[in-house]
User: What shape does this take?
Amino acid sequence: MTFELLATDGAARAGRLATAHGVVDTPVFMPVGTRGAVKSLSPDDLRDAGAQIVLGNTYHLLLRPGHEVIRELGGLHRFMGWEGALLTDSGGFQVWSLAKLRKITADGVEFRSPVDGAAHFLSPELAIEIQHALGADVIHPLDECLGHPATRADAERSLALTLAWAARSQAAHRARGVGRQALFGIVQGGTDESLRRRAVAETVALGFEGYAIGGMAVGEPKPAMYETIELVAGLLPAGRPRYLMGVGKPEDLVEAIARGVDMFDCVLPTRNARNGQCFTWDGPVVIKHARFARDPAPLDGECACYACRRFSRAYLRHLFMSDELLAYRLLSLHNVHFFVGLVRAMRMAIAARAFGAFKARFFSRYAVSSVDASRDR
Assistant: This one.
């Protein structure tokens, strides 16, 4: 993997990430394919939406169908029929979100499967083994994602564990032969400035090929999230890609890109589509509202996705209210188009040295959503 920084505008960056499965232009939004599929969408849908890289989930693919099955069938790219780049997370977030089913020790995490109750143990070494079997282009160490609020003592303990696991993960990655896979380090530390500074220093010292900002969108106030993103992004090496894990809403993407982030993922486009919320340049539209029952307009007149080219808000509302499965596909398709297109527009603005003007226009028009972002992949 190589990363080339092509343009900057303030802290905002445009670059090019070259992987074994194609070039990824940054900043980039990665649709979330938790179990080897982006919910309701095909690989052709994703390509048509402009997606260049998709996220897969180590934890869930371990449980079903199992990494050995995927390895035997040629790796995750072939298994899911996706020819572009793939990124996998380590399962650390699921360890946090399923707290009632797990026990964390220095060696790793004991947990019970929410699928069948079977006992599993995930160590830093096994997390790397699983991701090598999956064959993703970008992989991650096992980490502990700490919720908010947390005591200083808990944050220090958690960070020490994440740093120890990072070193073990990197050793396991190198021992297995790095091949064509890039290992990104994960920077944790909550919203504590001194802990985040320590996390950056010690993680960068290990020498990863890129860096992820973890532990955001876990209950902290928005101002604290933005301050932490700005702090960490400003401390990370300029010549390495920066990935903000599990964030977030459209306005979060704009604010994070303004602070120097390159890569994003979030379940919002598909999860909110299944709940009837669609994202547009004027803000979110809740399609089940009665005022759309006779609305002949497309979801977004500026969108070129299949749903907006072919169907009215009235028809999409009818599908959703009738529990027709087509509703979930069309709304998901639109939302993925919007998120990918939003980030592409910001990339173009950075290249033209016009990001500040783009950001001002965006916030003068976009009605900020009150719906919380979710990192539950």
Remarks:
- Residues 2-270 form a domain with the TIM Barrel fold (CATH 3.20.20.105).
- DSSP finds 15 helices and 17 strands in the chain.
